[in-house]
Amino acid sequence: MLNKLTWGILGCADIAVNAFIPAIRQSKFNELKAISSRRIEKAQETARDNNIPVAYGSYEELLQDPEIEAVYIPLPNHLHKEWSMKAAAAGKHVLCEKPIALNAGEAKELASFFHERDLLLGEAFMYRHHPRFDRIKEIVNSGELGTIRGIHGTFTFNNANDKGNIRYRSDWGGGSLYDIGCYVINSARLILEKEPEAATVHGFFSEEHGNVDMMASGLLEFPDSIGVTFMCGMWAEFQNTLQIVGTEGIINIPSSFVCSPEEKSSFSVTIKGEERLEDFPPVNQYTLQLNDFANSVRQKTPLAFEVEDAILNMKVLDACLKSAKEKMKIQIK
Fold first, then answer.
1. Which CATH class is domain 128-283+314-331?
2. Where is the Gfo/Idh/MocA-like oxidoreductase N-terminal domain positioned along the sequence (predicted)?
3. Range 5-126+288-306 has CATH code 1.10.3720.10
4. 97: Cβ–Cβ under 8 A, 6 or more apart, which residues?
């Protein structure tokens, strides 16, 4: 790859500062040119602290910068569709934080908008780019675990005291399903290479937190009688695990979605009572995600995970939210 892909960031969100910026610094194929904020002072401060060449006092200004080829969008969920489309209208490729939109209908609109302009739109599920998951899929597909009977995932953290957090605005797409439940749903679809047929979810909606789902526990019914159970929440002790259960063996994945880029990672495989560890050297999965994106832009090839996958994930999220609110099983069509 000859020329680095040039990036701008819309907003100064924590994930941009703590994850995206360090990751792009480690990439040989990407370069950060500019950051923007609705307040020029905030943009200038973030640019100064992170050695970013240009700061803009509006998102629109950044999108008009001809040197920027791709835009990272870490804005609140309800702004994902609007600013992704504005970026595409300005001729920019987009990597948007998850969930890509507020529902499957919005995701379909985005897909069409980008396809019409021959631009790439990626949903930022960084964990998928870690080599662990290629290996996990290889083991599952090899039959070593036997027939897969179920998957269980848990992703929780406790942020309940931060009452002003944007995650607690229901009109902004807040709630645990949107924020972290989407990871477990996405990983089950990735591993099984199938789509669920129905969802049943119990949610805890907190009046103290804008009536968003602070906790959710669910069952996804996949083809071949495979059950995927999950728990996600923003008012519980931190967990970040995934388990795949087969007739002959089990895979246990600690730190399944969030893992340190400075430390090695591993997962265990237990076959008929015999356990082994599969180890991986430290990698920054955000950097790997950016490298894959840049490669697709430069080589004019499809993304490893195309926007159609984001539409399918949103369909499941739509069903989960509907089930939690209406207290009933929802068929996914």
1. alpha beta
2. 6-121
3. no
4. 15, 73, 74, 75, 80, 123, 124
